[in-house]
Structures are given as C-alpha cells and as structure tokens.
Amino acid sequence: MSDSFPPFIAEIEPRIWALYRDFFDMAERRRRWKISDDIPWDQCNPDLDPAIADVVETFCMVELYLPDYSSKILPVVRPSKGRAWFYANWGYEESKHSLVLGDWLLRSKHRTDEQMADIEKRVFSHQWNLPHDSHLSMLVYAMVQEQATWLNYRNLRDRTRQRGGDPALEQILMYLAVDEKAHHAFFRDCLKLYLEVDRTMVLDALRRVMHNFFMPAIHDILDNSPSRISRIRELNLFSEELYFSEVYYPILRMLGVERRELKARDPAKKSLRTG
Hints:
The chain has one domain: Ribonucleotide Reductase, subunit A (Orthogonal Bundle). Helix 6 packs across helix 8 and helix 7 (167-197) runs antiparallel to helix 8. It is mostly helical. The protein has helices at residues 13-31, 50-63, 66-77, 81-107, 113-124, 135-162, 167-197, 199-210, 218-221, 226-234, 240-255. Helix content is 67%, strand content 0%. It contains 11 helices and no strands. Residues 1-5 and 267-275 have low confidence and may be disordered. 32% of the residues are buried.
C-alpha cells in the first residue's frame, strides 16, 4: 500500500483539520462518558437471553483488534494531520468500547474471568489486516463500517429490551451507538471534501467498497455450534436488506450521490487528478 497522498490533498487539509477540531470539541462537551460512573452496573441481568451475551462477546472480540486497527491505519493517514489525530482519538474511544463490553460480560455473570482470558487469547492469535489498498478506499470503508456498527448496536439494544431487558447493557449500547455515529459523521464529512476535489476518483472508491462490503461473520468469530449460530441469526441485527436500507442508501443520500453514478465506470471517463 502506498502511504503517499496525491499532491492535491493539500487543498483540503486545513478543512479536514477543522472537521477534526469540531469533532473533538463536540466530544469533549457532549459525548464523554465514564465506565465507572455512568453505567448502572447494579442493574445487570444475569438471566438475559444467552444469545444477547454471545453477540456482546463477539462485539467485544471485534473491538479487541484495536492494536491492529490503529497500528495499520496510522501509517496510511500519517500525511494528514486531521485524519491522524482523529485516529488517535478514535483509538481512545474504541478502547473504552472493548473495556465496557468486557466489564458487562463479567458483571452480568454471562462470562467468567477464565472465559474472558480465553477470548483475548483467541483474538491475539490472529492479526487483522487492512481490507483495501488506498487511503481513500479505507476512508470509504471506515465510513461504511461505522454506520453498520451503529446499526448493530442500535438493533442489539432493541433486542435486549425485547428479551428480558438489562438497563446496564442498554445504557452501554446507547453510548457506543452515539460514538459510532459520530465517527461515521467525521469520515462522511471528510469524504464530502474529496468529492468536491475529484468526484470520479471518489465514486470509484465508493463503488469498489460499498458493492463488496460485509461485516465480520459472527459465527467465524464465535464457534461452530449450529444452535448458537442459529440463536444469533434469529436476532436479525444485520442483513443484506438492512445494509441497503440503513447503510448503503442513507450514505448515498448524505453524500449527494445518485445510485446510477455507482454503476460500472465508463473506461473513457478518467479522474481529473489521476488522468
């Protein structure tokens, strides 16, 4: 992967930095929350549907890949102060997500210390690698991933209420969903700036990423128990239909991109910047 940016990026770097400062200042004023003080830990429900705990475990495992996420994306975005500083803040917020999900599994008695140690061992035995080969495609991927993760947390919160309720977990999922939505908004607003500079280049990246996007398969991260996989799928947290209705089309609308623009590219239509 090339770690260099096209020269024209300098045109929008001050605006990306401004986006980051707005993001950071808003987080400081309105989004900061404390694991120890802001979760009603005394209201954990040990009798909650085990399928909910299985999904929480999965999300916790995904968040535990934070060292890979941070170490591999930072060299790619290093030439952009705004994007690099954002990822430093993003890493802090995502670390809270893994901590609070793990704490809930323990405090709710759905997992033991030994089981949590095994989870960490399983995660750290594999590396996560960047799914795309350019900084722009990774920007699109991050934008889509954050919206999809927000959707998963929102839906899991709804299912938690429907299957016995757990005020502690519901509060956690609310905080996490708000964080993910804020992350998505930053990536989206950065992409809007790139659209102003070279629409064709951005459309190519959108087409490449959004037409091949997928969330990690829950059963790949958990285990091969058919009954466990079936219980989780019954929750219907994420599906192809939900992807298009709650992620794909809303993103296109927010970017001001028409669906027809993401059809197969005309080879004769070249990027203004790349020739």
